[in-house]
Amino acid sequence: MAMRKSLKNIYCPQCDGPPIVEEERELYLENLRKKNQKLRDEHERISNLISSAVGGPFLMNPKLAQPNSALMPNSTLRSPTNTCGSPIEYPPLPIPHQENNNNNNIRNSMNINNIPIISPLPLENYVFHHDDKEKLIIFEIVVAAMREMVELLKVNNPIWVKSSIDERCFIDRDSYNRKFPNSNRPYKKSSTTRIESSRYCGVVPMTAISLIQNFLDPVKWMNMFPTIVTKARIIEVFDTENLGGSVQLMYEKVHVLSPLVGSRDFFFIRCCRQIDSTIWIMVDVSYDLFKEIQSPVPSHSWKFPSGCIIKEMGNGQSMVTWIEHVQADDNIQIHRIYRDLFYGCQTYGAKRWIVTLQRMSERYNFAMGATCPTRHDLKGVVIDPKGMKNVMQISQRMVKSFCEVLSMTDKLDFPTSSQLNSENRVSIRKNEEITQPKGFIITASTSLWLPLPFQTVFNFFKDDKIRPQWDILTSGNDVTELARVLTGTFLENNITIIQPYAPNENNMFVLQESSIDDVGAFIIYAPIDSPTINSIINEDDVKKVPILPSGLIISPDGRLASNKNNVENASNGSILTVAFQKSICANNNSISQQQAVATIESILSSTVLKIKTALNCLD
């Protein structure tokens, strides 16, 4: 009683104010209880939402859980057979194990510890402020996208309609909108807006966990799809301890390897999650960042829930089913020679992603020596295995660098004019990186249609006896192949070192990589001098070796798609893209630039003429 009386008479030594009375204290505590209860209710709502999608209980943080709070009932996330017809079950996740110790700690077994968490890369000029409310919206989008992907993977889902022309499956819009009335929708359609949907499956020579690791790392993602993805960045990585898996906000730019086709930019959420010991799922879904990005021009591309499901098959192989579902409004009109490819969803369709993944996974296995390290035709040049690995590394960088420069529609220093042909594109950039010659680099490229199958065109360019007829690097002289390193089971997928028999340039070599698959082919090459070749095969650091590639991209023209299974009636046309790069003056001189443009445009035009003449395809 004496202590209570003293407390009533206490005063604040700072302001001489009255003490906190009991009524105020009780009111303060009551407000805290209400606030805590509101937080618990919100947390329980999110727990129910996540549990309904992931197929397992979502545990509250023990510090937030009320005493004797019961776990939520277990639910099951199931999918019938996938698009390849093999059954894939999504069992309920294991109930989190509760350890018997003094602290009664609860460990969440849903956390996938073997998913690498990648640190977000800095994205220039972008500022993001994701508070708890925005993060909640992001997780709701992820859960809805995951549920949608599982539904779309059902084989007999009436949402998928088979085309009567080429038997390609696409999504029926009316059925889709009724089934998924999702509020996460793209911008309003315009007259040029186009929705593309496709699915495809195939066996990939890589384990499921290795694929997921490549998908989560933006650098590995670009290396896995160098002919599709030009740029990729992680904007933000979210804490998903209770969700299980990895969720990150990403940006990517995808393109077709031609200067006549514009690129597409996507801002999206990527979620990777392990369903059981052999099944993984990756879901991409666009997220509206326009209000947060300090850029006046929004993206004209939108990803509906897309991605893939991966089933481990053993022996280093996985069955991958891919779904692409996007809305695009290309900012430039599609060139006439690419219309069939675009309207047939062959440019960015699921088949292109799967075939590219198969090809690059095979190349990776050969680079690691896991497939057949003794099949390399060395011919006395590349002897040491490490030197052979160097050749594959610098060649991979050469291919990636070449593919990046073909996205020329965004920044043309010399757009189509009276000085250039209507399909020719020329640009100049200043390079400061050590991986390419420093100074100004000029690039010239064009695309043209040829009335020949793309395999025939590829074989033409691979013939060393014909090479002097079109390649300016040979100066019209014969060439000899000094070394060959296989990058795939098909013998024409390889890296070669070629030497032209030029009388005054015996120290000049050509490093070349060739690749062909069901959706196209490329031949990319670059001149390299003798000291550089010696440094590569002698195990020196190849990361700093400057290389400036040129090359050829060959693809089907997309016509007669309904007869693809009939070799005789298959598409007899192809699209050829030719590109040259040349290092010019080190100072920004307008006269020298104009001269450089005239020179490289002349090289481009004359090379195209020589190719058409040799193929007997003159207009």
TrEMBL record:
Residues 131-366 form the START domain. It comes from the Eukaryota. Keywords: Coiled coil, DNA-binding, Homeobox, Nucleus, Transcription, Transcription regulation. InterPro entries: HD-Zip_IV, HD-Zip_IV_C, START-like_dom_sf, START_lipid-bd_dom. The keyword Chaperone does not apply. Pfam families: PDF2_C, START. PROSITE patterns: START (PS50848). The keyword Methyltransferase does not apply. Residues 22-49 form a coiled coil. This is START domain-containing protein. It comes from Datura stramonium (Jimsonweed).
